[in-house]
Design goal:
Elements: H1 14-24, E1 28-29, H2 41-52, H3 65-79, E2 89-92, H4 94-106, E3 112-117, H5 123-129, E4 133-138, H6 153-159, E5 164-170, H7 182-195, E6 198-202, H8 222-225, E7 228-233, H9 234-237, E8 246-249, H10 252-265, H11 271-280, H12 285-288, H13 290-305, E9 311-313, E10 320-324, H14 333-344, E11 346-347, E12 349-350, E13 367-371, H15 376-386
Parallel strand pairs: 1-11, 3-4, 3-5, 5-6, 6-7
Antiparallel strand pairs: 2-8, 7-8, 9-10, 10-13, 12-13
Helix pairs in contact: 2-11, 3-11, 4-5, 4-10, 13-15
GO cellular component, one term: cytoplasm
Organism: Eoetvoesiella caeni
Cofactor: pyridoxal 5'-phosphate
């Protein structure tokens, strides 16, 4: 059967490819971003209890009211803005669905949407499905003077024109691990004031920020709230990525449009998990203590790598760390990670995979992404192998 694909450039993702390779060679997989430890037993118990109480049928389309109320309270406590749980908070099937629904609801045929590269792999296909045109603005890569990636906000400004509908942000940033500052929010306020673009802010790692820094959410600024859709994830916060439970926040007018797409995408999501999360969220300790938990794991992996020929780049947030292998090999990143898996038994993700043109010289900086959301025993086993290079 002959037909034209809507996504001709989409194939098997690098995450699937590397995970399959890891299984084939029994490698330690530090590639895909999920923990190898379980959620809090109390949370699992609350899910079981919700099932026994009969919460197994369709909940309300925008989500269980008690959970939306708890999210509103949490956001108000952290960022000093109160979203109306009835009209401005929607529970989604993970952050993925929230992002997809937001793009499909707001991006029209012919619109341009700015994404910042390295870019998470969902954004560009979603924009294309909506009929929009992705406009890629690259970050400044690490160099001798700068130990991390940086956003070139002037290039972002220069990319905006009359067709620009949306700017997609992802901070704390996957894969680079950088975070926004208050100065960045100042710049974004000016960009929105000048252009009127929407901001789709992927904040799934909002509770994983290091060095006593505070997450700079779009919800902190009233001027940004009016033009922003904020997406977050319970999976990243509560070590339950397989539950695919997330949410989005927006003004009532914008959320009305997002819910139209949500209704005909999944209608609603897992009832018992929502009831359980509504109770679990009442205790702030699990998310307020998460940064310290993951910072210790980041430091554990980084310190271990210092005894190898890899040079770790300290991430400011997320549960990822970049490592420079320039002292080991001159191979392109995609070649190096394959060799790392096959010959040395550790799987990583090449940073070039987060670029539109992964084979280009400007996409290869001899950097790999490692996930440290792992038991220390897993990290130890990986470090033992990495030190042998």
């Amino acid at each position: 059967m002959n037909f034209q694909s809507k996504l001709p450039n989409v194939g098997t993702t690098i995450f699937t490819t590397m995970s399959q390779l890891a299984l084939q060679h029994q490698a330690i997989n530090l590639g895909q971003g999920f923990p190898d430890f379980s959620p809090d037993p109390k949370l699992i118990g609350l899910v079981h209890e919700a099932m026994l109480q009969g919460h197994n049928q369709y909940p309300a389309m925008p989500g269980v009211p008690a959970l939306r109320e708890q999210i509103s309270l949490k956001v108000n406590k952290l960022y000093d803005h109160s979203y109306n749980p009835e009209t401005e908070v929607t529970i989604t099937s993970g952050a993925t669905e929230a992002l997809m629904c937001s793009i499909l609801a707001l991006v029209r045929s012919g619109d341009e949407v700015i994404v910042i590269e390295p870019v998470y792999d969902l954004y560009i296909p979603a924009i294309e499905l909506a009929g929009g045109t992705p406009v890629v603005v690259p970050m400044l890569a690490p160099d001798a003077q700068h130990g991390n990636y940086r956003v070139d906000w002037q290039r972002v400004r220069d990319a905006i024109n009359a067709k620009t509908r949306m700017l997609v942000l992802n901070f704390p940033h996957n894969p680079t691990g950088i975070i926004l500052t208050e100065n960045d929010l100042d710049i974004l306020e000016a960009i929105v004031a000048d252009s009127g673009v929407f901001i789709l802010s992927d904040e799934v790692y909002e509770h994983i920020v290091f060095g006593n820094a505070l997450h700079c959410s779009m919800a902190k600024r009233s001027a940004l709230i009016e033009r922003s859709i904020i997406v977050s994830s319970f999976g990243k916060t509560y070590h339950a990525t397989g539950w695919k439970l997330g949410y989005c926040l927006a003004t009532a007018t914008v959320m009305h449009e997002i819910r139209k797409v949500h209704q005909f995408t999944v209608f609603t999501v897992y009832s018992p998990m929502q009831y359980a999360m509504a109770q679990f969220l009442q205790d702030p300790a699990p998310y307020t203590e998460l940064s310290r938990f993951y910072e210790s794991k980041r430091d554990y992996l980084a310190n271990g790598l210092k005894n190898s020929r890899f040079k770790p780049l300290l991430s400011q947030g997320t549960f990822f760390l970049l490592a420079d292998y320039s002292g080991i090999s001159t191979e392109p990143e995609a070649v190096f990670v394959r060799q790392l898996t096959v010959e040395h038994g550790v799987t990583a993700i090449p940073m070039s995979a987060f670029y539109q043109n992964p084979d280009a010289a400007e996409s290869n900086h001899q950097l790999i992404r490692l996930c440290f959301a792992k038991e220390n025993a897993t990290l130890d086993a990986a470090l033992d192998r990495l030190k042998e290079l």
